[in-house]
Amino acid sequence: MTIHKEGYTTIALSILFIFVINAIVDYKYHDITWLRWFIYIFSAALFIIVLQFFRNPSRSFSSGENLVICPADGKVVVIEETEEGEYFKDKRLQVSIFMSPVNVHINRNPISGVVKFFKYHPGKYLAAWNPKSSTENERTTTVVEHKNGTPVLFRQIAGALARRIVWYVKEGDQVVQTEQFGFIKFGSRVDVFLPVGTKVNVELNQVVKGGITTLATLS
Predict the structure, then answer these.
(1) What are the tens digits of pLDDT across the range 121-169?
(2) Is the alpha carbon torsion for 110, 111, 114, 117 positive or negative?
(3) The model scores a pTM over 0.90
(4) Which position among 14, 62, 188, 219 bears the catalytic label?
(5) Which H or E element spans position 43?
(6) Is position 134 annotated as part of the catalytic site?
(7) Three-state SS at 74
(8) Cα separation of 93 and 59, whole Å?
(9) pLDDT of 179-218, one tens digit each?
(10) Of 217, 218, 159, which Cα lies nearest the Cα of 191?
């Protein structure tokens, strides 16, 4: 397992914070044993939490020409037909994955193809499970066209804790299935919009793995 590049600055700041708070406690409160041990344990726990959040575990990825691979780790919280109003402006099949703070937060391309549309939206920080988060929160929208002509839209959505969305794609890019297209820090959600009638291979509340779980099969 390695540490994702998005974590380098946060980890460095965490180490600095831990060093400073421990130095203060050791200097000013060296005679209060319980306080020193509390800070030591807190510091160790904080460091482990930050490391695990930015972990980039080694994986054997799934692939398939007509498969839509899950773009993120988490739990399936939505499978429904809905009106997609930004790009398609028609009815689509929406599959949403909620990413808790303990999940790996790397986002991966669900299909290979050409990026036909990309847009970043500043916005609110509603809880990621709130239905309004799809249209009101900070988010990005990416549409990749499969070589068979089928477009798939996927959307990074910031949550109540997530305050930074990172993306690595732009319009015109040729992207490869399961390669990284972005990262969201501290709790979030990814929506995938598929053609109505697409065969979905997951169920509500199913725990899924980015780059591994097959989300759907394109016709």
Answers:
(1) 987 766 656 666 667 778 899 999 999 999 999 999 987 665 578 999 9
(2) negative
(3) no
(4) 188
(5) helix 33-53
(6) no
(7) strand
(8) 28
(9) 999 998 766 889 999 999 999 999 999 999 999 999 999 9
(10) 159
